[in-house]
Design brief:
Blueprint (H helix, E strand, L loop, with lengths): L3 H6 L8 E5 L6 E5 H15 L6 H24 L12
Antiparallel strand pairs: 1-2
């Protein structure tokens, strides 16, 4: 059980989840509300991603291109082959 003053400072309510992490000092641990840990992780990911528009849109565009190439390959494989002229003796 955490002291009431700590719960109040961290704005913890009954049932809230927390994350324990090691601190820079090996003799200490950090207690972070789960919602704060999630926000921190989201911020770190945003900072690590290139700022070139929507990643989802880029992935969808790439997949559309792959699907179009697959359809073209499939269509080519379904075309009837042109018979080769026979060389024969007259």
């Amino acid at each position: 059980m955490l002291p009431a003053s700590v719960r109040a400072q961290l704005e913890l309510r009954e049932g809230d989840e927390v994350v324990f992490t090691s601190a820079d000092n090996p003799d200490e641990v950090r207690l972070i509300p789960r919602r704060a840990a999630v926000r921190l992780a989201q911020r770190l990911v945003r900072e690590a991603l290139p700022d070139e528009g929507s990643l989802v849109e880029a992935l969808l565009a790439e997949r559309r291109g792959e699907a179009a190439r697959e359809r073209e390959e499939h269509a080519r494989s379904k075309r009837p082959s042109t018979p080769r002229p026979r060389r024969g003796r007259a």
